[in-house]
Amino acid sequence: MAVQTPVSPAPQKTPALQDGATAVDDVTRALPHALGPEKSLLSSMLQDPQEYIGTAIEEKLTAGHFYLPAHSTLFGFLVKLFEEGQEVELVSLVQRLLDKGLLERVGGAAAVTDLYTYAPSPGHFRHHLQHVKDKFVLRSIIQHSNEAIADAYDAPDEVATLLDTVEARILAIREGSENIKAPTIKDSVEEVFLQFQKLISGEKGAQGISTGFDELDRMSGGLKEGEMFVVAARPSMGKTSLMMNMVEHMCLDLEKPGMVFSCEMSAQQLVQRLVFSRAKFALSQLSRGYTPNKGDLQRIQRSCYETASSKLFIDDTPGITINELRAKARRKKRDEGIEFIAIDYLQLMKSRTKQAENSREREIAEISAGIKGLAKELKLPIIILAQLNRGPESRTGKSLGVPRMSDLRESGAIEQDADLVGLLYRTAYYAESEEEKEAEAGKAELVLAKNRNGETGHIPLTFIADLMRFESGPPARDAADA
């Protein structure tokens, strides 16, 4: 493990006031720190390494938390010895530091001996550890605030982008993401093997979040954290219905909190679809004079209750910008612990950068990259709908209406950023005669055209038009014939 030595920012000066005013107290101030608690932590670790170095690691204490570079270097070295299973005692520790050329960096043998004999009360370890963490947070706030002030004074053209960056930095402090060291290759291999063991043992949750569509889950292994799943189709193919069927399964059946951003439909319209689709009741029946029976009403009431009890959050801001979406998603992740996001749909989103104003392709590329980055940042999967161009309609014969990944509208960046690309189409939509439409009714297919971590192929689905609902497998008549 590489030993990290933090570079302490220079003491800060109170900035001069503008418009001719003078600062009342223009003095140099040291950054917040707690040298006593730092010494206490290191002393406890030296005296009882197994107990206190292990506790520090569990509490995600890192070398960066220490204000004094000597303390930071020594802590990093102690953790390295602990992880390698080597004994930590005063004489051999001093010799090892000398051999590595680090003894002078920690203040010499006298400084190490002084720490060893500091003799704090063991009962105060966690209390002192919190002190050190708190001072680190304060230093981080000052550092990021100074960077934000400097950036703001530079009068950037992309104010919205700067605001998004500042918010991300501050949220990173709250969520502790800056405290987590980058994984080593050993860490990654261990994680991969642990995942493999879970898979072969059939452990629940070993794969990603189930979408509710068996063949899609088999081919994709479920929706995994950091993944961007693009579902693309021509208008009227049922993109929104398919997305909401997945959302229904994840939120209501699996009871996972999730967030939907709808740029096209209102929250009320989406919830209406979800409730009646889940209740298997077609609202169109009412216009034909049908009166719901007791069974219908019970299913609708149960569906309403289950939907209302779920942790589904819907934002129907029209034309939302990528920066606004990321800010809202971060807050919901922090406050509600959302485990997935669904967006309807990509081409209705906006980017406010100068480059985006001059190029629609550039704008779509920025939005696509922003969504992929958000999936990785929040460590959750994002389903995003996208529109295809008119390519499917221009084809002839058996290829009429069949989408291809090259049909993704306005930018190849979507194809590049996505981990999974599903192309949805229904053959009945392109049927020319009534006989053909009847024969193809209910048939749908999701072509998994890209799968970064698995196989691709065709996934047969059944579309129930009255319910705006997709189900796994081909229509019953086709399944029976097969």
Describe this structure in words.
The chain is an alpha/beta fold and 482 residues long. It has two domains: 29-182, Orthogonal Bundle (DNAb Helicase, Chain A); 206-481, Rossmann fold (3-Layer(aba) Sandwich), CATH 3.40.50. The protein has 19 helices and eleven strands. The chain has helices spanning 35-47, 49-58, 69-83, 90-99, 109-116, 125-153, 159-175, 185-200, 214-220, 239-253, 267-278, 284-287, 294-309, 322-336, 354-358, 360-378, 413-417, 434-440, 476-481, and strands spanning 12-13, 28-29, 228-233, 258-262, 312-315, 340-344, 382-387, 420-425, 443-451, 457-464, 469-472. Strands 5-4-6-7-3-8-9-10-11 form a nine-stranded mixed β-sheet, sandwiched between helices. Strands 1-2 form a two-stranded antiparallel ribbon. Strand 10 (457-464) and strand 11 form a beta hairpin. Helix 6 packs antiparallel against helix 7 (159-175) and helix 10 crosses helix 11 (267-278). It is elongated and about 95 Å long.
Structural class: alpha/beta
Calculate the mean pLDDT score and round it. Answer: 80
- Identify the overall geometry: elongated
Per CATH, the architecture of the largest domain is 3-Layer(aba) Sandwich
Rg, Cα atoms, Å: 29 Å
Strand order of the largest sheet: 5-4-6-7-3-8-9-10-11
Strands, total number: 11
Largest sheet: 9 strands, mixed
- Give the amount of beta strand, in percent: 5-15%
**Helix count?**
19
CATH class of the largest domain: Alpha Beta
Distance between the termini: 58 Å
**What is the number of domains?**
2
The residue ranges in which pLDDT falls below 50 over 5 or more consecutive positions are: 1-27
Could you please say which CATH topology of the largest domain applies here? Rossmann fold
